[in-house]
Design a protein that fits this description.
63 residues, 0% strand, single chain, 46% helix, mainly alpha
């Protein structure tokens, strides 16, 4: 089980842009449950996954 630190405020000091996407309700339910197990919001959990994916591709996340 990994620990993901909750973000206290948006990076850069301002309001972060929103990113909207449509997903199947059953998938969202699964994702919500996993994020809750980690003790973070779904948004924070997805951002951490995206950062990890960038690192695997040899890219340093910028945010």
């Amino acid at each position: 089980m990994s620990i993901i630190a909750r973000e206290k405020k948006p990076k850069g000091g301002g309001q972060s842009p929103q990113f909207k996407m449509r997903i199947d309700p059953a998938l969202k339910e699964q994702l919500d449950a996993v994020a809750a197990e980690e003790g973070v919001s779904l948004a924070s959990w997805l951002k951490e996954l995206a950062r990890e994916a960038l690192k695997r591709k040899g890219l340093e996340p910028k945010g």
